[in-house]
Amino acid sequence: MIRALLVDDERNAREELATLLEATGEFELLASCPNALEALRSIRKFHPQVLFLDIDMPVIDGFTLLSMIDSELMPHVVFVTAHDDYALQSFEEKTLDYLLKPVAPERLAKTVTKLKELLEKNTVPRHQPPELQRIPCLKGHRIKLVATEDIDHVHSSASGIHLHTDNGSFFTELTLKVLSRSPLLLQCHKQYLVNLEKIDEISLLEGGFGEILTRAGARIPISRRYLRQLKQVLGL
Amino acid sequence: MTLIIDLLQQMSVFVVIAYLFTKSPAFRPLTSEVLPFRQKFLLYLIFSSFSILGTYFGLPVKGAIANTRAIGPVLAGIIGGPGLGLATGLTGGLHRYTLGGFTALSCGISTTLEGLVGGLVYQHLTRRNLADKRFSPAVVLATTFAAETLQMTVILLLSRPWQDAFALVRTIALPMMLTNSVGAALFISIIRDQKSVRDRVGVISSAKALKIAEKTLDLLSQGFNRETATRIAEVIYRETGVGAVAISNADELLAFTGLGADHHLPGSPVQSPLCKTAMREKRVVFADGHQRKFICTVSEDCPLGSALIVPLMCDDEVVGTIKLYEPKQKLFLNINRALGKGLAHLFSNQLLRSRFQSQKDLLLQSELRLAQAQVNPHFLFNALNTIRAIVTRDAEEARSLLLHLSTFLRKNLKRTGDLASLAEEVAHVQSYLKIEEARFADRLQVSFDIDPALEPLQIPVFTLQPLVENAVKHGIANLLEGGHIAISAREREDFVEIVIEDNAASYCEQEQQNGLGIDLVDKRIRNIYGPSYGVRLSCLPEQWTRARIKLPKPGGPKP
């Protein structure tokens, strides 16, 4: 059985695809997610082998979702869309396949064959997800998208990951690892990322430690482990 | 005293000559500040002969000649500048010199100097932007007086024996200074009068041109066809009083008014050689009736003898001609010639403008048709997918959705007219929203609040649908849950307002992206009803997005 996850914002569409997947007898459907955030949670929880992913979704579309998945958890991806505007693009993203809604069972069977081959060969999914530009943060029942260039720094604490910006701080479900894929955000400590553009001052302390003063006036620590990397990036 | 009267007599002869002279067309451009060389040469000849005649007509006084020689050079200087004054003065002076006498040299020199004095006054006035003052009799009087004073001084200084010179000057100074000054002043006042008569004619003819322009431009903006051409031709015919007016397009005569209308029939092909030349060479062709005659190719009895043919241009392409005719025995007035050219130029501009406008309208129409005809493929396939999912669970619901879908598609395909009632538009949008409600399930709710009195209101087709589609596509589809769309139509004080509001408030960020649909609807409403109507978007972040459609009340402006 192939461990599958399904993401689509339309309830009827989810039901329809679930019915089709079940009919093949090849899939174990781990979860059916109505949006990208729930999909991220389910991916971390279930480690699916394949993702059936709708492209047109509120706030975070299918492509953007890919940019938010931890690379070691990255499943194979089959895009499911109503219209093939995205065909070329998804080909470039090196996704496994794409299906057009309404999905014909015969067409799905081909996808299954392809998928099985890949899984037997133990092929690692090779996606080149788009660069992470806006980070989804929960704010009440809405999703607030914070642009990476607006972030001052990121702090990971026991309560979760917080983005600090000039307009307040926001909670996100993305991991530091995913966030540090953005070329703007650089890790300077196990618990901190700093926006390269927002560094105001760096003080080097004894013993290989350091401290960064950001534009927003926050002081964040540099640990020994990340100091060298930081110096390299800044050309020091 | 006798000398004054004699000189005055002589001067009168000049004034008569001057009067006749100013009546001739050769004199016309003389009033401009900068004269072309040919004109200057002509003036040189004329004023030089004045000067020479002045000497010949002069009266022998004590071995010298009392005369009105000065008028020519001084006027030449004032009108044509120092160069012309000097040349005229020198000619007059040389001539006087050859006649001999004890004042031959001094008179020759002083005449040249008088031309120069006129020229200096010219320079003085034009440099101060007072060129018009040159035609003031007072200025000319003073200048000539000064010039004559100079002449007397020169005679006293140069002529020998001094006693004779002094006796001569005593006798002739006053009469000559007076008659020359008065003569020059009279001369210039005649020129000035002629000029003001011409200016008045100019004012009348430009008023006429403006009147024609006002009456015809509006007609032309309604199209360039037989009907508008006929009405334009009638206006030109009435206002200019020419013998006949014709307007043609590139191939055939569109309108003909006036003499010869019996055989110049609208619809007949353009065939006169003059007209063909004008169109082929893209230039104005003028047959004055003397050197070049207009010969009618249709009838030998045609009364018309002269013609002005001006091509109408649009984008460097001849689209027609305007023709003014005069009958054989009548002179073709220059005013009408200039008027004809000016009108054709004006019409060409207007044609270009109308063409541009109609292309713009056409583009808007086709853009709109394209946008209307396109059922969003996402909508269609998502709808089919939704129905496929529902059919196993709730066959009745699926059947009803299929009906809504076919209603929506049929209305989309069938709409050909430009206007529909508000009720029809709402029905169209309702079938669209039924499908979207099923698709988004619990994520979308729709409410309508339409004033029943407004249901028969005629509005442009596809006014609501693009806006509602935007509210769904860019609004509700971006909400995780709890989407709401409210559509209302109400009569306001002096307009009708239709509002489409969603609670997603996500357009504010996407104004560029959703431009097309709303922009087209807005443009079309403005196009039909004028700039005070149209669509306006407003948004309160995270609260709502509102699209307000402002339309005229029933009985307001009609499309």
UniProtKB/TrEMBL annotation, chain A:
<dbReference type="InterPro" id="IPR046947">
    <property type="entry name" value="LytR-like"/>
</dbReference>
<dbReference type="GO" id="GO:0000156">
    <property type="term" value="F:phosphorelay response regulator activity"/>
</dbReference>
<feature type="domain" description="Response regulatory">
    <location>
        <begin position="3"/>
        <end position="116"/>
    </location>
</feature>
<dbReference type="InterPro" id="IPR011006">
    <property type="entry name" value="CheY-like_superfamily"/>
</dbReference>
<protein>
    <submittedName>
        <fullName>Two-component system response regulator YehT</fullName>
    </submittedName>
</protein>
<dbReference type="Pfam" id="PF00072">
    <property type="entry name" value="Response_reg"/>
</dbReference>
<feature type="domain" description="HTH LytTR-type">
    <location>
        <begin position="135"/>
        <end position="236"/>
    </location>
</feature>
<feature type="modified residue" description="4-aspartylphosphate">
    <location>
        <position position="54"/>
    </location>
</feature>
<dbReference type="GO" id="GO:0003677">
    <property type="term" value="F:DNA binding"/>
</dbReference>
<dbReference type="InterPro" id="IPR007492">
    <property type="entry name" value="LytTR_DNA-bd_dom"/>
</dbReference>
<dbReference type="InterPro" id="IPR001789">
    <property type="entry name" value="Sig_transdc_resp-reg_receiver"/>
</dbReference>
<dbReference type="Pfam" id="PF04397">
    <property type="entry name" value="LytTR"/>
</dbReference>
<keyword id="KW-0597">Phosphoprotein</keyword>
From TrEMBL, chain B:
<feature type="transmembrane region" description="Helical">
    <location>
        <begin position="135"/>
        <end position="159"/>
    </location>
</feature>
<dbReference type="InterPro" id="IPR011620">
    <property type="entry name" value="Sig_transdc_His_kinase_LytS_TM"/>
</dbReference>
<dbReference type="InterPro" id="IPR029016">
    <property type="entry name" value="GAF-like_dom_sf"/>
</dbReference>
<keyword id="KW-0067">ATP-binding</keyword>
<protein>
    <recommendedName>
        <fullName>histidine kinase</fullName>
        <ecNumber>2.7.13.3</ecNumber>
    </recommendedName>
</protein>
<dbReference type="GO" id="GO:0071555">
    <property type="term" value="P:cell wall organization"/>
</dbReference>
<feature type="transmembrane region" description="Helical">
    <location>
        <begin position="41"/>
        <end position="59"/>
    </location>
</feature>
<keyword id="KW-0418">Kinase</keyword>
<keyword id="KW-1133">Transmembrane helix</keyword>
<keyword id="KW-0902">Two-component regulatory system</keyword>
<dbReference type="Pfam" id="PF06580">
    <property type="entry name" value="His_kinase"/>
</dbReference>
<dbReference type="InterPro" id="IPR003018">
    <property type="entry name" value="GAF"/>
</dbReference>
<keyword id="KW-0812">Transmembrane</keyword>
<dbReference type="InterPro" id="IPR010559">
    <property type="entry name" value="Sig_transdc_His_kin_internal"/>
</dbReference>
<feature type="transmembrane region" description="Helical">
    <location>
        <begin position="71"/>
        <end position="90"/>
    </location>
</feature>
<dbReference type="Pfam" id="PF07694">
    <property type="entry name" value="5TM-5TMR_LYT"/>
</dbReference>
<dbReference type="InterPro" id="IPR036890">
    <property type="entry name" value="HATPase_C_sf"/>
</dbReference>
<keyword id="KW-0597">Phosphoprotein</keyword>
<dbReference type="GO" id="GO:0005524">
    <property type="term" value="F:ATP binding"/>
</dbReference>
<feature type="domain" description="GAF">
    <location>
        <begin position="220"/>
        <end position="361"/>
    </location>
</feature>
<keyword id="KW-0472">Membrane</keyword>
<keyword id="KW-1003">Cell membrane</keyword>
